[in-house]
């Protein structure tokens, strides 16, 4: 049985801004591993991570710092990212919702199309439509970032009703899609990854999902 959506949402601009920033970063690195410059930039911002208050965030930050201390470089991280997500060969951890939730464990199934429809609520679409699945973990995290950014824009324009509608889109997407597979998938990344960076990325993602769910009142699986 699907969980009921929250009845009302309290919108806090500072929290929306923090959520948007965190999900934007996480979405980027799930889709594309960092080059040297991006890796240095991220490491320089760890002390300012916008969502530090969950067990996932604390462990993620610890792992990211361990990655730096042990000298993991961008080439190692790129190789691990490709090995995990299937760029080099068969994925150790498929990054697509449809593989985890579909009966036949195939991409471009009904779940992919449902995600595509959800993106349209914000006039978004996957960057490589019909060539790569819409339900990549990075794209789903980016949808949450975009819902927060749209809400902030609406508040800036004096439209709190529109802002709440955008947050509602994000909360519904979290409830119907990301929570149904993301935590398990990210847990597998923690277990399978060879680099502390990728384990840290997964833990930070778990922490961000936890924070977003609490902020929007969406019940999480036990």
Automatic annotation (TrEMBL):
Coiled-coil segments on the chain, per record: none
Protein's UniProt keywords contain Magnesium: no
This protein's UniProt keywords: Chaperone
InterPro entries reported for this sequence: DMSO/NO3_reduct_chaperone, TorD-like_sf, TorD/DmsD_chaperones
Highest taxon of the lineage: Bacteria
Pfam families, A to Z: Nitrate_red_del
Gene3D superfamilies (UniProt xref): TorD-like (1.10.3480.10)
PANTHER family the record matches: CHAPERONE PROTEIN YCDY, DIMETHYL SULFOXIDE REDUCTASE CHAPERONE-RELATED
Protein name: Molecular chaperone TorD family protein
Organism: Oceanitalea stevensii
Organism phylogeny: Bacteria, Bacillati, Actinomycetota, Actinomycetes, Micrococcales
